[in-house]
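job 3f2a | input accepted
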Amino acid sequence: MSKATNIADWRDSSPIYTVALVTGGFDPVHSGHVALMREAKEFGDELWVGVNSDSWLSRKKGKPFMCLEERMVVVSSIRYVSKALDLFDKDDTANHLIQFVLDTTNYNIVFANGGDRAKGNTPEYMTYHKNPRVEFAWGVGGSEKMNSSSKILDDWKNSP
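job 3f2a | predicted structure (160 res):
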C-alpha cells in the first residue's frame, strides 16, 4: 500500500476553512452586537467583522458618534472577533469585503446576519447566493433586533 497521494485528492479530502463574516456600523457597540458576534463565531473557524465607514454612518444617520478608528479598536477587542476590517462600503453593501475574502483566500464564507435582516433586505444575498463558497445565516444572535445604536443615542440625547 502506497503512502503517496495525488495533491488534488489531498485537497479534496482536507478540512475546509470557513470564515464567519458580520458587518455593521457598531456606533456604539451594544449587547445585540455582542450576541451577534458570539453566535456568528460558531459558524466558522474565525470571525471577521467588517466595520462600516464614517461616511456610511453619515449617509445612514447624519454623522458618526464614534470615529472608525475608535470603533475598530472596540470591535477588535471583543473576544469572539479574530479580525476587524475597514469596510469599503461606497455602494452601501459588504460586497467588496466578500469579494476581497474570495479573491485573497481559499476560505468559505458564512455571511451572518442579525434578526433585522432577511433575503429581501440583504443586497449581498442577491450578489452571492449562488456562489458555492458563500452561505448566508439569518437570525444570528436572536430572531429579533435586541437593541439599536440609534435608539441608544436618541435615548441618551433626550434624557434629563
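job 3f2a | The two ends are 79 Å apart (CA to CA).
job 3f2a | closed
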